Amino acid sequence: MSNATETAVPQKKEKLRSPRLEYYREIWHRFKKNKLAVVGLIILALFVILIVFGDFIAPPENVHLQNYSAMRQRPNSEHWFGTDALGRDLFARVIHGTKYSMGIALLVTASSSIIGIIIGTFAAYYRGFPDTILMRILDVVTSIPALLLSMSIVAAMGTSTLSLFVAMTLSGTPGKARMVRTALLNVVDNEFVEACHACGTSTFRILTKHLIPNAIGPVIVATTMGVASAILNCATLSFIGLGFQEPTPEWGAMLSMARDYFRTDIYLMIFPGLAIILASLSINLIGDGLRDALDPRLRD
Question: Where are the domains of the chain?
Answer without folding.
Answer: 35-61+89-298
